[in-house]
Design goal:
The chain is mainly beta and about 475 residues long. About 5% of the residues lie in helices and about 35% in strands. The protein contains six helices and 33 strands. Strands 3-2-1-33 form a four-stranded antiparallel beta sheet, with no helix packed on it. Strands 4-5-6-7 form a four-stranded antiparallel beta sheet. The longest helix has 8 residues. The protein is globular, with a radius of gyration of 20 Å. It starts with 14 loop residues before the first helix and ends in a 16-residue tail after the last strand.
Amino acid sequence: MAGKCGACGPGYASPLEAMKGPREQLLYLPCIYRNTGIGIPDFLATVDVDPKSPRYCQVIHRLPMPHVGDELHHSGWNACSSCHGDPSKSRRFLILPSLVSSRVYVVDVATDPRAPRLHKVVEAEELARKANAAFPHTSHCLGSGEILISCLGDPDGNGKGTFVLLDGETFEVKGNWEKGGKVPNLGYDFWYQPRHNVLLSTEWGVPRVLAQGFNPKDVEKGHYGRHINVWDWRERRLVQELDLGVGSIPLEIRFLHDPSAAQGFVGCALSGDIWRFYRNPEGKWEAEKVIEVPSKKVQGWLLPEMPGLITDILISLDDRFLYFSNWLHGDVRQYDISDPKNPKLVGQVFLGGSISKGGAVTVVEDRELQDQPEPCVIQGKRIPGGPQMLQLSLDGRRLYVTTSLFSAWDRQFYPSLLKEGSVLLQLDVDTARGGLAINPEFLLDFGKEPGGPCLAHEVRYPGGDCTSDIWL
C-alpha cells in the first residue's frame, strides 16, 4: 500500500511511517505437502485477519502450484519500500522460490488480493543454465526494480552461496548477481544496505545433506554453516568472512531498519546465540555475541543436550524490540534492543516445543527454567511442533507465529506435524513495557485443510512488512 503522497512508489518513506500504516487484513502463507504422504501440490493460502470480518482467522483462498513436491518456503516482492521514490513501480507480484524443486513462482496479488493468481513460473532449468544455481531461498526487491534471490547450492545439490538476479518486469533470470571472485561454500539468507555499501549473507548447509534431515555428524564434516559473509555492494564481491564458530549455523539476518544504522543481528540456530554485527571505525565489519540460549541436558531425545534452535528472528520497525523463536525449546522471546550491545529479555511465551510436561523428553539440567513448561493448549488443541516463522504487525502490537520449519526436519523432530498439520497463532505484544501473551481467540489449524493436513510456513502482508521491506 502506497504512502499518502501523490507520486510515491510502493511501501513507505521510512520505517516509522510504515508503523502508521493500516492494520493487516490479509496474510499470505505458503503451505507445503512435501513429505506428508499427500501427493498434491503446495499452495499459497490467503488468510483473513480482519477482526470485523465474518471469515476472521480462516483461509479464504488457496492457489495450488502446478507441480507436486516444490517445498515452497520463503517469499518476497517484485517491489517494496526500496522503490518508494519511484512512482513507476508497484507491489504487484509475490515471489515464491521453491527450496527443493528450484522453481520460482511469480504470483499476481494485485488484480485480486483476496484471490491471488499464478503469473509466471521460472523453471529450475533456467536458474541452472544462466546462473549454475539451485535451491533458491530468500527473495528481496532492489531499488533498481530487479529481484535478488539467494541460493543454497548448485544444481547437483552441492553447497554454493550464490545469488540470482531476476528482471523486475519479465522475471527472466539475468544471471548471477556476484561478479567473479570467491563465492562462499554455503548460502541461505541475506540483507543489503547500499548506504553502507554492503550485503551480508548467511549459511545453512549443503542442500543434498540437509534435505535428508539433520545428522550431528554432518556438522563435524563441515556440511553446515558458520559464517556471516560480507559483500561489497557496488563491486558485488565477497570481501570478508566473519566466523561465528563451528556448529553455529547462522540463519536469519536482519539489519536495523533505520538505513543509517550500520548494525543488526543474526540468529545462530545450533549454537543458540544471537550475534550483533556492526561496522567498526575502520570500515570493517565485526560481530559479537549478545544473547546466549543455553542448551538443556535431556533424556529421551536425539542427543544428550538439546539446543534452542533459533530459526527465525525479526526486529520491530522502530528498532526497539528483537524477537526470536526457539523451535526445539518451544519459546518465543522479546528483547529490548534500545541498547543493541546489551539486549534485555522483556517477554517470553512457550508455544509447544520438545520439552513440555507429559512428553517424551525429560530435562535433567536447565540453566534457565525451574520446571518444564506446561503444554500449549489453545481452544482445546495441544499445539504440535514448536514456534518457527514470525511476522510482526506494522504497529508492533501483534506477532504471528507458525510452527513448521522444513518438511524433512519436521518429519524428524516433530513427526506429529505431518499427521496433524501446523498452526498459525497470534501473540499480543506489550509495546510499552515489553511482554508477550497468547491470543486465545486466534487459532488457524492447517490440519483441517480440504486436501489434508499441511505445513504452513512464512507470513507476508500484501502491503509489506518488517522482514520484506528495506529502506535505502
